[in-house]
Amino acid sequence: ERVSLQIDSWFKSLFVRKVDPRKDAHSNLLAKKEENNLYKIQFHNVKPECLESYNQLCEGMLPKIHADPQYSCELVGTWNTWYGEQDQAVHLWRYRGGYPALTDVMNKLKQNKEFLDYRKERGKMLLARRNQLLLEFSFWNEPLPRPGPSIYELRTYQLRPGTMIEWGNYWARAIEFRQHNHEAVGGFFSQIGSLYMVHHLWAYKDLQSREDTRNAAWQHEGWDEVVYYTVPLIQHMESRIMIPTRASPLK
Questions:
Q1: Residue 16 has pLDDT above 50, yes or no
Q2: How many other C-beta atoms can be found within 10 angstroms of the C-beta atom of residue 32?
Q3: DSSP per position, 53-107
């Protein structure tokens, strides 16, 4: 049966347009051409006794940056991890204009006393922090504000080096299987930070809805093939269930 599936998949692939990895950089081949968006994801590990104070501090600062037109950035979402790494905050920012926009925002924030005071106070509450710069896959939705209430799942995949194009080719077809309940929020791949890393962001009504939606994907012809051929590309994978904070545009 497995041999039959491989032959059938190979035959189908003859009729599907694939990215040629030899012609250009991965970022140019996989990212959206019409939008020059750069994303930054931040992971903050907060002292357990400080999480509520941390959230309040962020709620007072992050929406101000988001709403101020002098900053070419948008707060896409901000969450606390519910299941997965505990006492963790996750922030996702979008910079419309790419790296120049990021640099411009960072330079302006260095002159913002309120932001500098916020960072100083925030530092007292953190155990560790890290970030990544990301591009969005061309075939994924652009993450836009949602009314909610929803829980969010951030599924993170560490791919084997050299497999990003192959991953993109399979998921360009697979994403259609995961749109029926509007669960697909955004898909990203790393540019700076941990490399060959992919993040898929999903929204669900609750944990049972997540279970039902994921199980329903197996009823679509072709989903089993995607899973079969993408699992060997993965070195490590992780799932976080996250709850939006009051400041999050993704509710």
A1: no
A2: 14
A3: HHHHHHHHHHHHHHH-TTS-EEEEEEEEEEESSSSEEEEEEEEETHHHHHHHHHH
CA of residue 241 relative to chain centroid, distance: 13
What confidence tens digit (pLDDT) does each residue in 57-93 have? 999 999 999 999 999 999 999 999 999 999 999 999 9
pTM for the full predicted model = 0.87
What confidence tens digit (pLDDT) does each residue in 103-162 have?
999 999 999 999 999 999 999 999 999 999 999 999 998 999 988 899 999 999 999 999
Euclidean distance between the first and the last CA atom of the chain, given in angstroms as a whole number: 44
Distance between alpha carbon 50 and the CA centroid of its chain, in Å? 26
- As a whole number of angstroms, the distance between CA 181 and CA 146 comes to 13
Half-sphere CA count of 60, side-chain side, radius 13 A: 13
